[in-house]
Specification:
Helices cover about 25% and strands about 30% of the residues. It is globular, with a radius of gyration of 17 Å. Strands 1-2-3-7-6-5-4 form a 7-stranded mixed β-sheet, with helices on both faces. The protein is of the alpha+beta class.
Length: about 250
C-alpha cells in the first residue's frame, strides 16, 4: 500500500475527495501502470487510482520512457472495468479530449491534441496518455489508464511544457480524474460532438506528416483513426505515431 502523500493528501483522503473506490500514493515506483495492473489482477475495483511522486521506469506508447522526476508532475494510473470493447478502441482519444478540456484553465490556454495520445501547450508536450487493457476469453477484464502530466516542465527535458506558474498537482488531479472517469463511462465510438470538439483542438489538422503515412492530416474518424490525405486518396491509420514533416 502507498504511504506517501500528494500535496499533503494521502490515498484515503484523495479517494474520499474524488469519490474513488481506492487510492494509493507512493513515493517511488517503477511505473504506476505496473502497480495498477497488479492491483487489478488482485481484484481492485473500478475507480482505483495509483499515484507516484516519482517513477523510475515510467513509460509511454511503444515502450518509450516517460521521465517522471519527483515533485514535477502528476504520474498516475486509473483502473477501470468498462464493458464496451468499441469504447476501449477510442478511449485514448476520448480521454485526451476530456482531460484537455479540463486543463485549459490550469494551462493558461487551450490545450491542443496530437493524435493519438499527446496533449500540447505552447508547442510543447504537456501530457501523455497510455491505455493498456487485459482480456480474458475475448472479454476485457480491466483497463489501466496511465496519465503523465507535467505540472512543472523539467528544464532538462526537450520540448516539455507545464501548467501555469503556481498550479499544484492537487489542482491538476481535481481536474483530471473526474474528466477521465466521465470519459470512461461513455459507450461506443466517438460521437459527432466529440469529433467537433476534437477538431477544435487538433494540432495535426491540415499539416503535412511523414508518419504513420506521408500526406496531410484531415482529422480523426469515429473509430479514433487518423485520416490522412495521400496521393492515393484518404487513408485511415489505426496505429503508429504522428510525425510532422518539419520535425523529420
Amino acid at each position: 500500500m502507498g504511504d506517501h502523500t500528494l500535496d499533503g493528501f494521502d490515498g484515503p483522503a484523495i479517494a474520499t475527495r474524488l469519490a474513488l473506490s481506492a487510492c494509493e500514493v507512493h513515493r517511488r515506483v517503477s511505473s504506476t501502470m505496473d502497480v495498477a495492473h497488479a492491483a487489478a489482477a488482485a481484484g481492485a475495483s473500478a475507480g482505483t487510482l495509483i499515484i507516484a511522486d516519482e517513477q523510475e521506469a515510467g513509460r509511454g506508447r511503444g515502450g518509450r520512457r516517460w521521465l517522471s522526476p519527483p515533485g514535477h508532475g502528476l504520474w498516475m494510473t486509473l483502473v477501470e472495468r468498462p464493458r464496451s470493447a468499441e469504447a476501449i478502441d477510442v478511449l485514448s482519444l476520448r480521454a485526451g479530449l476530456a482531460i484537455a478540456e479540463a486543463l485549459d484553465a490550469l494551462a493558461g490556454e487551450r490545450v491542443a491534441l496530437k493524435w493519438p495520445n499527446d496533449l500540447l501547450v505552447r508547442a510543447g508536450k504537456l501530457a501523455g496518455i497510455l491505455i493498456e487493457a487485459r482480456w480474458r476469453d475475448q472479454r476485457v477484464e480491466w483497463v489501466a489508464i496511465g496519465v503523465g502530466l507535467n505540472v512543472v516542465a523539467a528544464a532538462d527535458v526537450a520540448n516539455a511544457a507545464g501548467l501555469v506558474p503556481g498550479a499544484t498537482r492537487l489542482q491538476a488531479l481535481d481536474a483530471v480524474v473526474p474528466a477521465l472517469r466521465a470519459a470512461v463511462a461513455l459507450p461506443g465510438a466517438l460521437r459527432a460532438d466529440e469529433l467537433a470538439r476534437y477538431a477544435a483542438r487538433d494540432a495535426g489538422a491540415g499539416r503535412r506528416i511523414v508518419a504513420p503515412v506521408a500526406g496531410v492530416v484531415v482529422g480523426v474518424g469515429t473509430a479514433g483513426d487518423l485520416l490522412v490525405q495521400t496521393e492515393a486518396g484518404v487513408v485511415s491509420c489505426r496505429a503508429g505515431s504522428l510525425v510532422f514533416a518539419e520535425d523529420h
